[in-house]
Amino acid sequence: QVQLVESGGGLVQAGGSLRLSCAASGRTFSSYAMGWFRQAPGKERKFVGAISWSGGSTYYADSVKGRFTISRDNAKNTVYLQMNSLKPEDTAVYYCAASYSLYDSIATMENEYDYWGQGTQVTVSS
User: Fold this and answer.
1) Rounded distance, CA 41 to CA 48, Å?
2) N vs C: which end of the chain shows fewer Cβ within 10 Å?
């Protein structure tokens, strides 16, 4: 079992930055690829980005590429989402998720993820 708790959300003006954190329980955090997803009001949850369990590989949705950066600290069982140059369309509930993997690979589909956090609200004002 892996429990995930996101933090760091809030209200920010367009052009600003936020860093989300996702703290994981369990001793095998380093065996999980991690991902971030978001869900805007009235819309489906969408993939934002992911990182392999070593941190050596990352992948981003086109909508956030160049603005968002995912990193992880396996010693702290934590994954981060640094969000820069925020836009009003980035407003959403952001979820982190964990995908058990035998290989140091990326997961981009929701059904590849085994565990989910409760989400943290990010609101970007114009």
Assistant:
1) 16
2) N
User: How many Cβ atoms from other residues are within 10 Å of residue 126's Cβ?
Assistant: 9
pLDDT-derived band at 102 (thresholds 50, 70, 90) equals confident
pLDDT in tens, 1-38: 899 999 999 999 999 999 999 999 976 888 899 999 99
pLDDT per residue as tens digits for the range 36-61: 999 999 999 999 999 999 999 999 99
Distance CA 118, CA 38 (A): 11
Report whether 122 contacts 87 (CB < 8 A).
Answer: no
Tell me the C-alpha distance between 100 and 84, whole Å.
28
User: CA of 115: how far to CAs of 22, 96, 97, 112, 118, in Å?
Assistant: 12, 9, 5, 10, 10
Instruction: Give how far Cα 69 sits from Cα of 9, 36, 55, 82, 118, Å.
Output: 15, 11, 12, 5, 21
The Cα 31–Cα 119 span in angstroms is 22
